[in-house]
């Protein structure tokens, strides 16, 4: 490999790997001087001139002119009789500069130099990648799915850098195939075996916040502030927003005309239900809004223990709790209060229609129970687990879970 090819190859490498010109020149000079030290024991008498733009370099060895017969080290000294062959005007004590050809170093040294260069460039590239993505934590990145594994997905960004989206950071209903484009937020950047590992997330609250910034100009411009976000990824999310401009309706701006703005976010999050509410410092009003779409009759607060007893009409209880209990859990996390739901006038309730449990019990299970004539909670509880197993296609575990939900209504 001659000098021209060597510099050209690494000049191209520099362009692809985003290493600045000054750093590249410094690395090249450093590895050349390392080779000179190996050959001469020192590099103090050598000049290294590198021109990346032209794709060439020069190495000049400076030797002191000494009288004939007094040369002790040919690497740093030259006899007077040899010096005058180069330039007749030279005198003893002056310096002679001789250009050293690249091939003079020998094949072994050249291979060592090349390996050293590659190693140094790769280290710089790793450091560069780490710093770039460390500064991008919390930002959305778009990449192409390169490989899908059981526990994670390998994603390539626009520059071909490898990013990882673990299964734990995917929305449960996410399904990606090789070649597809996905969006995620940079969650963290780790160093493993001296290599940066960029972890992406689609379940982090920051992902939803960045999506709002993309879809809602008022959020991006700071006219609307997102005070808090709580998510049950793929199921439900609650977003508390506030505007310091009385002319702007923060909820309306986030939802958009006929839901135009929020629909794009919902699709990206695999049909995750998103409740956008107005933030307030009034805890009672905040809890009332957080439990949307349920309508609250009364709230009793214990601010010392951060507990809230919420009373609702019978037909609002299931709405407050939500499917899988997500609504009440997210409301509690959003407000910081532990919320307990009570049915208003529960002592007077004789029975409850099964349809009121639609948010907690799958519709096909309710249909199975109705087929055998059980259309209310008590009509189901009057039967034994064994009898329900024999009369329906439901499994024992499913029926026991239904019993827990129904019994909780009468406690």
TrEMBL record:
Record-annotated membrane-spanning stretches: none
InterPro entries the record matches: KH_dom-like_a/b, KH_NusA_2nd, KH_sf_prok-type, NA-bd_OB-fold, NusA_N_sf, S1_domain, TF_NusA, TF_NusA_bacterial
Keyword Flavoprotein: no
Domain S1 motif, chain residue ranges per copy: 138-203
Residues annotated as signal peptide: none
Subcellular localization, as worded in the UniProt entry: Cytoplasm
Molecular function terms, GO-annotated: DNA-binding transcription factor activity; RNA binding
One cellular-component annotation, GO: cytosol
GO process terms (BP): DNA-templated transcription termination; transcription antitermination
Keywords: Cytoplasm, RNA-binding, Transcription, Transcription antitermination, Transcription regulation, Transcription termination
PROSITE patterns linked: KH_TYPE_1, S1
Entry's family note: Belongs to the NusA family.
PANTHER family in UniProt: TRANSCRIPTION TERMINATION FACTOR NUSA (PTHR22648), TRANSCRIPTION TERMINATION_ANTITERMINATION PROTEIN NUSA (PTHR22648:SF0)
Function per UniProt: Participates in both transcription termination and antitermination.
Assembly and oligomerization: Monomer. Binds directly to the core enzyme of the DNA-dependent RNA polymerase and to nascent RNA.
Descriptive protein name: Transcription termination/antitermination protein NusA
